[in-house]
Structures are given as structure tokens and as C-alpha cells.
Amino acid sequence: MVSRKEEPSLAVELGPLSLKNPVLAASGTFGYGVEFARFFNLSRLGGFCTKGLSLEPMAGNPPTWTA
Question: What pTM, to 2 d.p., does this model score?
């Protein structure tokens, strides 16, 4: 009988959130995610980090930015 190799669990808890793995797509580098859907299965990610929302306008970061 051949035993099937079990994959280790990569599940993590981040505060009240349970993620299936710790791989998160970061805001600013991943757009809305749909742009990358043709390259790989987005459901394999643990989650997406989006930009914050506020009821009041925010100034943001002053220039100069370095990439």
C-alpha cells in the first residue's frame, strides 16, 4: 500500500483572522489582485492587504519616494 504524503499545514492566526497560509499580497504592489489572476490561482494566497479607508481626507506621504 502506498501512503500519500501529507502536506504540512501553513495555517496561521493573525488576531481574530484565520488564514490558510501566511502569504499576503501587499497593497501597492498587487493592484486589486485581478490583474494577476491570469498568472496564478489567487485562492492560493492567504489574503490581500488593501489600502486603508477613512471618513476624513488623509495627507499621505510627502515626496520624494524611492522604489
Answer: 0.62
Cβ neighbours, 10 Å, residue 47 = 14
Range of the domain at 36: 18-48
Domain count, the chain: 1
Instruction: Check residues 3 and 31 and name the one with the higher pLDDT.
Output: 31
Distance of alpha carbon 47 from alpha carbon 27, whole angstroms: 11
Three cell numbers, residue 41? 490561482
Question: What does each C-alpha distance from 31 to 10, 20, 44 come to in angstroms?
Answer: 25, 21, 17
User: What grid cell was written down for 60?
Assistant: 499621505
DSSP 2-48: PPPPPPPP--EEETTEEESSS-EEPTTTSTTSGGGTTTS-GGGSSEE
